[in-house]
Amino acid sequence: MVKLTIDGIQVEVPAGSTVIQAADAAGVEIPRFCYHERLSVAGNCRMCLVEIEKMPPKPQASCGMPVSEGMVVHTDSEMVRKGRRGVMEFLLINHPLDCPICDQGGECDLQDEAVSYGRDHSRFEEQKRAVSKPDWGPLVRTTMTRCIHCTRCVRFTTEVAGTAELGGTFRGENTQIGTFIEKALTSELSGNIIDLCPVGALTSKPYAFTARPWELRKTDSVDVLDALGSAIRVDARGAEVLRILPRLNDDVNEEWLGDKSRFAVDGLKRRRLDRPWLRENGKLRSASWEEAFAVIADRIKATAPEKLGAIAGDLNDAESMLALKEFFTALRSPNLDCRQDGAEFDASRRAFYLFNTTVAGLEEADALLIIGSNPRHEAPVLNARIRKRWLAGGFTAGLVGEAGELTYPVERIGVGTDALKALADGTHPFAEVLKAAKKPMIILGAGALARPDGAALQAAAWRLAAQYNALRADWHGFNVLHHAAARVGALDLGFLPGKGGKSTKAMLNGGVDVLWLLGADALDTKAIGQNTFVIYQGHHGDAGAARADVILPGAAYTEKHGTYVNTEGRVQQGFAAVLPPGDAREDWTIIRAISAYIGHALPYDTLEQLRAHLKASYPVFGQPFIRLAGNDTTAPLANPAALSAEPLAPVFGNYYQTDVISRASPTMADCVAAHYPAKAEAAE
Amino acid sequence: MNTQPEPQTFMFDEISEPLVAKAISKYPEGRQMSAVKTLLDIAQRQIGRTTGSAWLPQAALDAVAARLGAKPMRIYEVASFYTMFNLKPVGKYQLQVCTTTPCWLRGSDDIVSACKKASGIEHFGETSADGVFTLTEVECLGACVNAPILQVNDDYYEDMTAASTEALIGDLKAGKPLPSAGSLGGRKSSAPAPGQTTLLPASGSGE
Ligand code: SF4
Ligand code: FES
Ligand code: FES
User: Fold this and answer.
1) Residue B71 C-alpha, separation from nearest chain A C-alpha, in angstroms
2) Which of A515, A551, A556, A579 could staple A539 via S-S, CB 3.0–4.6 A?
């Protein structure tokens, strides 16, 4: 640790820190454009000038200046102010000053600093430079005349995203930040450069000219478009969600967000179910809640409990799933399943289905084996963490499966399950890597679990973890990477077949007479029995609603207070930013209402009561997050020999459209058109 | 002007290959990227040798990236930064006029005009209609003592005047080979223009 003084404040920071980091620690603000704590130091904007005693008598760039013992720093001396004013004047020489028509206005670092350090006029009488507006695809809008060449976007795509598709080309006055060869950005994390850009050079294309930041109501929430549970902020005006931005959460998403989670918002306004619907003579007609309830009540009362079933989908909050589970328990039906993908595996212990190493814990691992997962598509922010770990050195990754290009080198061990056998008996060289590793970890994709031999894969992966010493008191190296935000919460709640109950597969093909789909759209609706009466509760008119006999309009994640458990088992809460559209209601209230209508009223009238009940019945929902220890090595129940030879194919055909919200989003459709031209044509 | 379509592929040929291997071998494992400028130069010369126009199409940039295990963007950055690398086809003779302050004070504006007049080129970056000349503006060539400087391909021509520039270009147009490099004003290496003033043979008393 090094002690220094900044503006009279004593701070102690680790050796090797820079002066700007020490100032941040001391709570002294230093303006900056190029410096960013999660990127490498570029030191090219010069806005962070400070004065340091006993150094040459000139301002120093604090972002690149290492601290030393006893340093005395001034951040607000006359020299500093003059220096920063000079830097500002240079930056503004070529800046268009078009704030009135710039989307960054109101949340622009350059604008903010100009208030403190800008002059009220310019001494520059020559021509300003102008730069063309290259097309970087459907997400990022470029106005490169505003660019101040801080290179944050370049460093982000190079370091964090790992696609290295942006660079600083040409020189001097002709410098251009861009792709050089015009193309759409291919990173799934490209939206983050919009947040990073300190000026209005990079703004959101779908959000262009929509709102000013001060018009927005900001609500903290949790993302549900993958299972990582990234912290987000939902910005709404009136009844409309206009944009979603990441929030800081070092344990999960640091400050990044995947493009789908950020840009699928326009899907929240389209294909919405805003009133109940009933099917009559094969056609859906809109109905009142009363009518819908009456039809459902008649059906349920006329059906034997063992012929009732419920399947929960991927975007649900824990509250609605608890309500539905308890409603079905009251109806004496054991037919529940939250695995609409048909997965069947041992969920008797949390460790069997969690990402036990944790997202932050991943940074301690020194070897990684990925089985049947493509983290780049299933959790792009997690993929960036893996890349971060790889960049730090001393880390080797291997892959069993067919995942496409990842952003770090992986040894491709094989595409099928024979590769797992080769690892188990040590005949593949990657076994040596696992053996030598101090903290090896295994990631098993949820897509692999959904295969007919999913349980065997789970057991085989667990056994590999045990064999290579990844299950210890101080380290848990077995991980399942889910892609459904609701899944872990549902498993924690035991939204699973009860005693003698039917699984998803058994409920299809006429296994039940009444099937309640709670936001379940990813199952094969054609496999639902011809005469099965389908109740679809959800927010989008997608596959489930198309097959439904009754539609109950629910709320999307931005419209309800909800609890979600991420793939690590972290219990997090989302808050409603807007009201559900039309007659739609928060989902648990719908179930509560119908339970009373049928005469089995659930024992809670408010969300607080429901949550108290949830925590009392399932204590994990009330406990602070902890990393599980790996000392219980009892393997999941399954016969690992039952593995099929099928290759482990990727679970998503494309990253952009994976659920009802992203399928309804025109922006996501544009992304598919830009990145998978063949697929977009087929969908026409 | 080179009107061939942009080549879609590029491979180092048997003349370039040993040079490439040698350039890369100069740097330790993992630091191959250090050879980037040498490889770009080799590629550009190869294309000059084989097509008569020394430039770097994208295929060549990508081939250099692949050879060095670098992301193509890193190569684009380097190739676009240096004026020695041409990202468009160029003429047989590349007229590179230095316009940095010392050369400018010594009359580089006249050299630029003379180049334009003699070659028929209107703007920097353009190639003459006959495809023989390309005019480029470059920064200090490090030969300011003998300013102004006109570099043609690899050679420096020094102490240029409008007249000597026009004559030089005229000769090249007429198919004559490049004269030997150096001062065209009669100066011996970098000695003062009117002749040597120091290290003269001893005369008078001497101290
Ligand atoms: S586009 Fe923005 S982030 Fe990128 S270099 Fe320019 S100012 Fe910086
Ligand atoms: S923040 Fe230090 S130079 Fe840009
Ligand atoms: S200024 Fe022309 S060579 Fe230096």
Assistant:
1) 7
2) A556
Residues A192, A196, A198, A202: is their CA dihedral positive or negative? Answer: negative
Cβ atoms A92, A33 nearer than 8 A: no
Q: What angle do CA A89, A90, A93 make, to 5 degrees?
A: 85
Length of chain B equals 207
Q: What would the mean pLDDT of A419-430 be, rounded to a whole number?
A: 96
**β-pair type (A475-476, A240-246):** unpaired
**For A234-379, where are the alpha helices, taking DSSP H only?**
259-263, 289-301, 318-330, 375-378
Question: Is the CB–ligand 1 distance for residue A152 below 6 Å?
Answer: yes
Residues 6+ apart with CB under 8 A from A79: A51, A57, A58, A59
Residues 6+ apart with CB under 8 A from A428: A413, A414, A419, A422
**Of A41, A3, A8, the residue nearest A22 (C-alpha):** A3
Look up tokens 């030969």; give the residue. Answer: B143
Tokens linked to A473: 């008191």
B76 with A165: Cβ contact below 8 A? no
Residue of A179, A175, A174 lying closest to A158 (CA atoms): A179
Mean pLDDT over residues A151-162, rounded? 98
Please say if the pLDDT value at position A684 is more than 70.
no
Shortest Cα–Cα distance, B8 to chain A (Å): 14
pLDDT, position B1 = 45
Neighbours of B110 (CB within 10 A): 15
CB A348, CB A458: distance < 8 Å: no
Q: What is the dihedral of CA A447, A448, A454, A457, to 10 degrees?
A: -160
Q: Is B33 left (phi over 0), alpha (psi -120 to 50) or beta?
A: alpha
Give how far Cα A470 sits from Cα of A356, A367, A435, A478, A547, Å: 11, 10, 10, 7, 45
Distance (Å, whole) CA A353 – CA A569: 9
Beta-bridge mates of residue B136: B96
Q: What is the pLDDT of residue A232?
A: 98
- B93 with B79: CB under 8 angstroms? no
- E strands within A492-541? 514-518, 533-538
For B17, the 3-state DSSP assignment is helix
d(CA B41, CA A619): 68
The rounded distance, in Å, linking the Cα atoms of A678 and A664 is 19
Q: Which two tokens stand for residue A242?
A: 């206009």
Cα separation values, A582 from A346, A545, A548, Å: 41, 17, 20
Does residue B65 surpass a pLDDT of 70?
A: yes
Window 33-92 of B, Cβ < 8 Å to A: 58, 71, 73-74, 76-77, 80-81
Query: pLDDT exceeding 90 applies to what percent of chain A?
Result: 96
Cis, bond preceding A31 (omega within 30 deg of 0): no
Strand intervals (E) in A149-215 = 167-169, 176-178, 202-204
Query: Is B73 close to A170, i.e. CB distance below 8 A?
Result: no
Mutate to test the pocket of ligand 1, among A136, A152, A169, A204 (most ligand atoms within 8 A of CB): A152
How many angstroms separate the CA atoms of A643 and A417, rounded?
7
Indicate the burial class of A275 (C-beta count within 10 angstroms; 0-12, 13-18, 19 or more): middle
**Res B207: pLDDT:** 47
- Give the C-alpha separation, A132 to B203, whole Å: 67
Q: Nearest-CA neighbor of A246 among A266, A230, A259, A267? A: A230
pTM score, whole prediction:
0.94
Give the model's confidence band at A34: pLDDT under 50 very low, under 70 low, under 90 confident, else very high.
very high
β A550-553/A277-280 pair status: antiparallel
Q: How far apart are CA A60 and CA A401, in angstroms?
A: 51
Taking only the tens place, the pLDDT of each residue in B18-57 is 999 999 999 999 999 999 999 999 999 999 999 999 999 9
Prediction ipTM score? 0.91
Ligand nearest to the CA of B107: 3
Per-residue model confidence (pLDDT) at position B197: 83
